[in-house]
TrEMBL record:
It comes from Paracidovorax valerianellae. Its cofactor is [2Fe-2S] cluster. The chain crosses the membrane at residues 12-33. Gene3D superfamilies: Rieske [2Fe-2S] iron-sulphur domain. Binds 1 [2Fe-2S] cluster per subunit. GO terms for molecular function: 2 iron, 2 sulfur cluster binding; metal ion binding; quinol-cytochrome-c reductase activity. It comes from the Bacteria. Pfam families: Rieske (PF00355). The main subunits of complex b-c1 are: cytochrome b, cytochrome c1 and the Rieske protein. It catalyses: a quinol + 2 Fe(III)-[cytochrome c](out) = a quinone + 2 Fe(II)-[cytochrome c](out) + 2 H(+)(out). This is Ubiquinol-cytochrome c reductase iron-sulfur subunit. Residues 86-192 form the Rieske domain.
Amino acid sequence: MSETPIDSSKRTWLIASGCAGAVGGVATAVPFVSTFQPSEKAKAAGAAVEVDISDLKPGEKVTVEWRGKPVWIIKRTPEQLAALPSLDAQLADPKSERKQSELTPEYARNEARSIKPEILVAVGICTHLGCSPSDKFVPGAQPSLPNDWKGGFLCPCHGSTFDMAGRVFKNKPAPDNLEVPPHMYLSETKLLIGEDKKA
């Protein structure tokens, strides 16, 4: 049986159409495969956030967004700091021992729940159902708060209360203290939210 020779012009067309098909396949596959890469917006959403706190005065709070969550940075007054130890007996987890690795990094497992005592960095989301607590920094009797209130946060949804270190009071719907996100100081006045390990 003898092989029929292929016409050279047909061979050229076969090679050309094969190459065109391969190029078309690659052109179609590249956009599809690229959809598996995170978008720039997604990368930015998880990126660390640098915050200048040089203008933050005692008793003030600034809110930044990190990973779609509000992160509070509060400069506590000496009076607010002094009140923290007196509240331990009223709190559900005064030393942040429950859910340690999830909600409180090692360097924030202290009375002030912070690296620097005067600066609190906390995620402003209630650990009950994800509402955002309101600032109740002024001490004293107020609606929905005890008469000996020392300052902190009130979740208006179900009445959970947190002290000025984001620690939840006993017998409240919220099961845990407010989350302390990973963070570190780049300088005396610059914070990095989202990273806590120097490269």
